[in-house]
Amino acid sequence: MSKYDILFIGTAIVDSIIRGFDPNPVSATGYRADSGSLHIGGEAVNGAIAAAKLGMKTAVLCPLGDDAAGSMIETALAAYGVDTSLIVKSGDHPTPVTTMFVAQDGTRRSITNKAHRYNFHPERYLDALGKAKAVVLGSLFRAPFDDPAVIRQVVSAAHENGITVFADTKLPNFTKLKLEDIADSLPMIDFITPNEDEARYYSGEDDPEKMADVFLDAGVRGVIIKLGGKGCLYKSKEETICLPAYDIAAVDASGAGDNFLAGFTSEIVRGSDVRSALTFANACGAICTTAVGACTALQGRQQVLDLVESGA
User: If residue 64 lies in a helix (H) or strand (E), which one and from where to where?
Assistant: First the structure.
């Protein structure tokens, strides 16, 4: 019996979100913004909380510093019902804090720092994989998944245990990996979910279907290109599915992709077909953008089903 429905592996951070930043100074050193707030974040944290809200038994394998930011994240995870027993705490590294500037239309830019290169080794905890039905790699191409050997060990262990592997992607920041650098790992990934910019970067293509073909030719079973306000494209060797985005007023797109992936993974684990899971995931991502912070707007599975039913 699996202890978890989904195990999320990756980063845990605190987001300092500055909304409506005015670049024109009001004094020699002072600037204004509409609001400033602190939110827990990071791909593994966002996904685990979203999936827990959707009724999944979730756990997170991530590093935290022994500091106030780490305590904030751990407390919030526990409050949402996420299993925190696999968190790796250390006094040697601070918990990463990201400053995010969010525009009025919900688009954002972020500032990272060296703390995001946390010396975390998920390959040392492979026994945890056997407790899950599915595993999500929160940020392929960024720490800790910016080391081909680490990626290979984790996906190999999951693959050998018959565990479905989902991988989100990020543009590289400190280590510049390319698809060919992890060629031996890609055939063991069941679903990969780059956004349009990431897919363009790694594939060298501009058309979403051609982007997907590059990943498929590399051995990935199913590719989802997240197209923001244009919806999403799914492609496998057997089918191609294009879905439009929901027509909603976006406030903050932070974590929308993580909520999308949590929704898709949750529905696949429940036994849904890919089209139904994509439709559900699209709604999760849309709901996420209606409030500031990655873990704010999504409340539960029925909320998502209501949006799907409305077709709004």
Answer: strand 63-65
* Span of 72-76, 119-123, 166-170 with lowest mean pLDDT: 119-123
What secondary structure does DSSP assign to 7-62, as a single string?
EEES--EEEEEEES-B-S-SSSS--B-SEEEEEEE-HHHHHHHHHHHTT--EEEE-
The pLDDT score that the predictor gives to residue 254 is: 83
Q: How far apart are CA 25 and CA 100, in angstroms?
A: 18
What CATH number does residue 124 fall under? 3.40.1190.20
Contacts 24+ apart (CB under 8 A), 286-289: 286/245, 286/246, 286/248, 286/256, 287/248, 287/259, 288/50, 288/253, 288/255, 288/256, 288/258, 288/259, 288/260, 289/106, 289/248, 289/250, 289/251, 289/252, 289/253, 289/256
For the stretch 36-78, pLDDT in tens is 989 898 899 999 999 999 999 999 999 999 999 999 999 999 9
Q: Residue 223's closest CA among 153, 156, 278?
A: 278
Q: Give residue 234's domain range.
A: 4-22+33-310
Q: How do strand 4-9 and strand 132-140 relate by DSSP bridges?
A: parallel
Give the pair of three-digit tokens for residue 132: 């899950």
Distances (CA, A) of 10 to 30, 42, 258, 301: 35, 8, 12, 24
Whether residue 162 has pLDDT greater than 90: yes
Q: Does residue 28 belong to any structural domain of this protein?
A: no
> pTM to 2 decimals?
0.92
For the cut 80, the answer to whether the pLDDT of residue 189 exceeds it is: yes
